[in-house]
Amino acid sequence: MDRNGGRSPSGSPELRTTLLAAGHRCTPQREAVHEVLCEMRNHPTAEEIFRAVRSRMPAISLATVYNALESFESAGVCLKLTQGDGAARYDSRTDDHHHVQCVDCNRMFDVAGPPLAQWLASIDPRGEFELLGGRLVLEGRCPNCRRNA
Amino acid sequence: MDRNGGRSPSGSPELRTTLLAAGHRCTPQREAVHEVLCEMRNHPTAEEIFRAVRSRMPAISLATVYNALESFESAGVCLKLTQGDGAARYDSRTDDHHHVQCVDCNRMFDVAGPPLAQWLASIDPRGEFELLGGRLVLEGRCPNCRRNA
DNA sequence: TTAGATGCAAACTATTTGCGCAATT
DNA sequence: AATTGCGCAAATAGTTTGCATCTAA
Questions:
Q1: A104 to chain B, minimum CA–CA distance in Å?
Q2: pTM
Q3: Which nucleotide has its C1' atom closest to residue A26's CA?
Q4: pLDDT tens digits, A75-126
């Protein structure tokens, strides 16, 4: 079983190992970004991560945060979630799960359901495409906003 | 059966009726955008639609195209497809179907498979969220790019 | 040692907005 | 007649890039 919610432990030597294996470097900035990302479980935007990490590393730049997140994504350390409107969101959970973005408050939530991998098998039955992945990001209304609607 | 591929007929009074019902106006510009969108079956971006519609209506502006597409989407006349990188793409097919965006050529393709509606039933089994919709946009490699890879 | 990362600022892309005029209902 | 949309240009948001310097491997 997954005793860690799909998250790689923060501040661990694992980040370094994984980044190196993917051909990236592990810098203090990246460690800081990773720690912050693992602490924030609300699917933060790059900007939000930037603000949070700047409080412990004031000299870091937004470009470096984007750079770090890109290296994480390419190393499989985090997920980049995109929904039409606004900014991309990042998730340190890398296991197969789904998301709902609330149409009212715009926040993004994890949602339970069968993994996408299970569905992918029934997509493109003729095998025309080499399917590499994809995330299911749904629209909906979160419990809180439903109450206030 | 769906003899029209999920597309509303172009240049028809249906567009007018549907827009009016949704509280929008039907202008010559919107009719032109709709016609072009129905002819382009390659999931064009707003920019591409703009260029195509400008050839028959040179004075139209990009902002008007965005405006038209937004009114179409809100009236259920077209779908707005978003994938993390780059521009949103528009589809005059509004029936439940899926898309793959090629990681090499960036074009977007229709792909066969069970409708999302069928899957939605198994998402969020506790009914915490009021699920309103969502589109499945997958990443993959298209037949043409596979051949040249 | 050296390829890759950093910080800064500027560039870029996609999209939205304010405004005065025109066209639709 | 009144409201909404149009075209234009400027503004915005999010993200990327160029460049000189620095640093992890």
A1: 11
A2: 0.87
A3: D24
A4: 999 999 988 778 999 999 999 899 999 888 888 999 988 888 888 889 998 9
